Predict the 3D structure of the following.
Amino acid sequence: MTDTDKSQTNTPPRPSAFASRRQFIQMGVATLGAAWAGTFVQSQLFPQPTSQEASPVTFPLAELAVGAAKYITYAGSPVIVIRTAETIKAYSLICTHLGCTLQWQAGQKQFYCPCHDGRFDQFGEVIAGPPPVPLEQFPVSVDGDRIIVGELV
Ligand code: FES
């Protein structure tokens, strides 16, 4: 028997293409199932607070000049706080269409969504594109020299 003959006899039978494809699909389904189960368990163990449950965010009034904007995280989501000469407002930066993150365009005084060209005015109202409703707005108050986003309990 030659070396070539030995290697041919010791080689395990090659699985058919059908068996490999079935195994591949089974592994894919198992992986997706495991990923879904992990996400579900994580959401049950560590739920994101709603805006009603979230702890308020405070920062010094001096950090937000008139005409400026400040980015914060509130209720686990990106929020922008905008100060004008008249008022201070806080808006979610999550697009109400499909949840993309918005960009504040200070020069145009509008929010832009790069996903589907959605636009909101400086008050969070929809002015263009597919977003169905205005931006979520959060309560803002001023207590002495600090700004509070969210409700104090
Ligand atoms: S996700 Fe913002 S316009 Fe579609």
Observations:
- The radius of gyration is 27 Å.
- Residues 3-45 form one domain.
- The chain has two domains: 3-45, 57-149.
